[in-house]
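Tutorial, part two.
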Amino acid sequence: MKKIKVSDLFFCLKRVFTASCISFLFLHANASHSQNFPNRPIKIIVPYPPGAVGDIMIRIVTQRLSEKFKQGFVIENKSGGGGLAATEGVAKSNPDGYTLLFNGPNHVTNLGLYKKVPYDPVNDFVPVSYVAYSQTILVVHPKTGIKTAQQLIDTAKSRPMELNYGSSGNGTGSALKMQMLMRVTGIKMTHITYRGSSQGIVAQAAGEIDTSFVSTPVVLEFIRNGKLTPLMVNGTQRYPGLPDVPTSKELGLQDSDVEVWFGLFAPKNTPPSTVKILSDEIQLVLKEASTVERFSTIGLTVVGSNSAQFAEFVKSEAQRWPRLIQEFGIKAE
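Running the prediction step on this input gives:
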């Protein structure tokens, strides 16, 4: 049997002791971080302009989180470019829980739209919570004379490319919905993009574009004052605020549905304890009757998942959408 030298034994014990100390310090630092989190304002990057549905949604949530944490939340809107720069910036930020991302479908659809995406939507982030999803409404400008979804389809078929539709750009929920509707019905229309849904809806109300899919929080006031005509609500249930508007399921157009979801992300390597604090508090806020009512009033459906549940959802979306985008031949503009 080979004899063990005292010096070798001492070296091994030293390595074990050093590793134990490092592990202890790491765990202690994490525990200390969590106990003190948050101790300064938290910045949330939103790759949408002010007034867009994602912007509206996160401001409702952070209003209550500010009260609970006794800390401020800074919403920084960085729209444009499909959210690539904004999302990449958060992916490369310090993973301490103080810089977060509030994103929607383009978080994963960009994989199918661009040859090179400067971040991995699954591996570069820790999903915190799936907050909610938005119902969208197919609307037209009154000047078109169109009153129903079928009339829109018939008009577009008889005059290919003459009608136009607006969106915030390829890969966004509004564009994907229209592109899927065109594929399902065989119609063709001209695409006009705007820098955000709020800019697009103003342009449509002014008569610059004929039709679009718009989230309920953004479009309701324009419908109520008669500047836009609603044709269809995506989903299986009618929107309570517009009880006479049929759903895509009722019209046999459910295959064109795209769920416009939104959730909160942290950079990878953010301490799990910090992610749990954020996720737990968000879920509590989303269970409050006042929050549910505010969301419902503007056509938003609360989800409020935990981190693991949201991670599974994002992973499935990241596999699903690039394949569909390639199949549909959709390109970034």
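The chain is about 45% helix and 20% strand. In part three we will examine how such features are distributed along the chain.
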